[in-house]
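Hello,

Our lab assistant flagged a job as stuck in the queue for most of the afternoon. It eventually completed. Since we weren't sure the result was trustworthy after the delay, we are filing this so someone can double-check. Below is the sequence as submitted and the structure that was eventually returned. Let us know if re-running is recommended.
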Amino acid sequence: MQLKYFREGAMQRIKNAVYSIKDYYIKDEVWIDKYFDNEEWKVTSKINVDSFSLLIPVDDNNYDINNIKIIYDAMKNLKPYQANEERLWSYLTHVYCWDYMRRRWPVENYLDNNKSNFINTLHERYFFKSKTKRSLIRNGLSRLWWFGYITYDENKTNPFSLTEIMLSRQDIAESVMGRSFSNNPKIVKALLSVLEDRIDQGFDLPKREVIRDLCKYLSHRGGSSLIDAFDRDEIEIELTKRLEKLL
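-- returned structure --
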């Protein structure tokens, strides 16, 4: 299928009005066409991806890892600069994946918040709250694609094994994605591979403080040397030595 995206003016119109149109956000049916009433609000891009259907959350099971696999497999040919586009993800949150968004990020959960918090939450999950990297992993759908992008390893029998490592604990994902090196899949995969090796050796994952130290160490190395130029194997060796010292 060819991806669609919001026209800039149309997206900003809805984004600026989320509080006054909050009743629309509790509807189970897609409402955008009705809201714009025959106005031209969307554009069809030249980006072709596979059709996909995300698993709908049930009770306490959000199926995040499953849905990362689904959305990244379907949209694997998306370029990172394209995946930075707010209008694309906002279209998907409001139209193509509306059923998923209604169950994963239901607006009803935020109705008791004050107006400012409500608006911020809607902007964060259904749009981009800002132009920062953090927005990419806060939007309800782009977060799934980006987790897949930085962890997918086609050389592994299970190419999403590193994804599973990162999502196995919230503190791991937060520590990794909160660092500048998270823009570089090679560095992220080197770190996660070191953690995966430890599990393969029969050990538990390191404690939160150790994970944080490894991430700080990578950030420091990135600031003091051209770590981007290192081979992945070199980064893994260095991280393994660091981990052994910490343990």
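-- support follow-up --
The delay was a queue issue, not a problem with the job. The result is valid. The chain has a mean pLDDT of 93. Residues 152-246 form one domain.
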